[in-house]
Amino acid sequence: MRKDLVAGEQVIVVTRPQPRSLAVPALLFILAPALAAFASAWTLRGGAASVIPGFSEDWNGWLVAGYLVLAGWILLGFCLPRLIRWNSIRYILTSLRVMRRDGLVRRRDRQISLGAVSNVLLSQSLVQRGLRSGTISLESGHEGSLTLVDVPEVAKFREFAMEAMSKLPDGGTRGTAQQHAVVHGPGMNSERRWRA
């Protein structure tokens, strides 16, 4: 990261998305081996033979192998890719720009200059409000927009970004940033605006 910074640029925040997307993979990471072990023990003690008529105990090894393959597929095919995907995303706020980097094999880097930001949109669902996370969209006229999804401690991240924008020298390129917060959820449809 240090080699990517320009002279005088400082890193303010480096973070990942809120890990709530890992809740189901974490649960399956615990349950899959436990259920495979339980099913294997149940099968080896004759449970499958008592439930399935005509089931021979010669098939116990194949059934246990099937349980293990299924548990392995859940761990390696479902849990691990989601963990790797989550771990490969970085949100970086520096004194001059905001960056989103993702990808493990094929890296993607999207950035927007803080001086060009004209609009900061913050949105939170009810779940995100409870977890203090949210989605930030930074809009710029000529550079497009950059959306950071499920930013943890989104209010602090927004404060740091607005503070960094206020410290930028007015070289004519800095837009008048307008900040929006939209709160989504049952009974919630409020919108707030801030001016920088």
Brief summary:
This protein is α+β, with helices and mostly antiparallel strands and 196 residues long. It has helices at residues 23-44, 47-51, 60-87, 126-131, 154-166, and strands spanning 11-15, 90-94, 97-102, 108-113, 117-124, 133-140, 144-152, 178-185, 188-195. It contains five helices and nine strands, in the order E-H-H-H-E-E-E-E-H-E-E-H-E-E.
Overview of this structure, please?
- The protein is of the alpha+beta class and 196 residues long.
- It has 2 domains: 22-86; 101-195, no CATH class.
- It is 38% helix and 32% strand.
- The chain has a 5-stranded mixed sheet. Strands 1-2-3-4 form a 4-stranded antiparallel sheet, covered by helices on one side.
- The protein starts with 10 loop residues before the first strand and ends with a strand.
Which features would summarize this protein structure in a list?
4-stranded antiparallel β-sheet; alpha+beta; single chain; 5-stranded mixed β-sheet; elongated; disordered C terminus; 196 residues
Q: Which ranges are low-confidence, i.e. pLDDT below 50, for 5 or more consecutive residues?
A: 171-176, 181-196
State the distance separating the first and last CA atoms. 28 Å
Any idea how many domains? Answer: 2
Number of strands: 9
Helix content: 25-40%
Strand content: 25-35%
Strand-pairing-aware structural class? alpha+beta
Assembly classification = single chain
Strand order of the largest sheet: 7-6-5-8-9
Q: What is the 3D form?
A: elongated
CA-atom Rg in angstroms: 25 Å
Count of runs of 4 or more consecutive helical residues: 5
Q: What's the mean pLDDT score?
A: 82
Task: State the order of secondary-structure elements, H for helix, E for strand.
Answer: EHHHEEEEHEEHEE
Biggest beta-sheet profile: 5 strands, mixed
